[in-house]
Amino acid sequence: MSGCSVPGEPSHLAHSTWRFVSIDGEQPAASQAAIVFDEQALDANVGCNALGGPWRTEDDRIIAGPLDQTEKFCEGPVWAQEKAVGALLVAAPRFELEGDTMVLRSNGHTAKLQRENVGG
User: Fold this and answer.
1) pTM
2) Burial of 32 (0-12, 13-18, 19+ CB in 10 A)
């Protein structure tokens, strides 16, 4: 299930935080791996570098960018997952929402996320 967005209106993803459950079928290397959708900007962190920039939805896709990224040295599983999430986000991933679960798919990568309850 997904919805359409109307230009100038905020997406239903705005003001939400999503924790990664899996990245390309693997558990996140860092427990804090998440994407935060603000009104007009997203912030993603898989455990090493921060990635962020403007975003919007079009039909069943998230259009993000241009995205800025910090440039800390990373290696191992967290680095591989960071590259996968970066490639996923810049490739206008399709998103599917079912309750508090979201799946992003694009560019040969898949991520499953769980909505984080805020103030609950």
Assistant:
1) 0.85
2) exposed
